[in-house]
Amino acid sequence: MPLVRIDLNKSASPEVARAIGDAVYTAMIEVANVPPHDKFQIVTRHDDSELVYPAEGYLGVQYSRNIVFIQVTWVAGRSTETKKAFYKRIADDVHAKTGLAKSDIFISLVDAAREDWSFGNGEMQYAPK
């Protein structure tokens, strides 16, 4: 039940945006054990001035104007090892499919409870029983 937000430079092609979304989705299924067809993504393109990052880098990571911000909101409970593998898989796959630098793949995870979701109809599909 993840919700993925992908923010990237407006100069990125639709093929690059799609490859990023596919890489995230594949990592969710193959690494984080998300069920198939659970693909909800919002892709937003931005002008250079709207993607703000430290020009001098951060924690030894250097960024470029090709930076991609990926935020995944999902149900809490995955281990640190799973999260590490998830980050690596996305960076590796995006780099392999698009040529974007792994250093430009910024990922943030937001853990939420099962009852924090409504998939439509104003219902809490995963309400506690």
Structure description:
The protein is 28% helix and 23% strand. It contains two helices and four strands; from the N terminus they run E-H-E-E-H-E. The two termini are 18 Å apart. It is α/β, with parallel strands linked by helices and 129 residues long. It has a four-stranded mixed sheet with strand order 2-1-3-4, covered by helices on one side. The model has no long low-confidence stretch (mean pLDDT 95). It has a single domain, classed as 2-Layer Sandwich (Macrophage Migration Inhibitory Factor).
Key traits:
single chain, Macrophage Migration Inhibitory Factor, 4-stranded mixed sheet, globular
Task: Put the structure in a nutshell.
With 129 residues, the chain is α/β, with parallel strands linked by helices.
Number of helix segments? Answer: 2
Distance between the termini: 18 Å
CATH architecture: 2-Layer Sandwich
Average pLDDT: 95
Number of domains: 1
DSSP strand tally? 4
Query: What value does the Rg take, in angstroms?
Result: 15 Å
The shape, in one word, is globular
Can you write the helix and strand succession as a string?
Answer: EHEEHE
CATH-defined topology:
Macrophage Migration Inhibitory Factor
CATH class: Alpha Beta
Low-confidence stretches: none
Strand fraction: 15-25%
Oligomer: single chain
The spatial strand order of the largest sheet comes to 2-1-3-4
Q: Please summarize the sheet with the most strands.
A: 4 strands, mixed
The CATH superfamily is known as Macrophage Migration Inhibitory Factor
Structural class: alpha/beta
Question: What is the helix content?
Answer: 25-40%
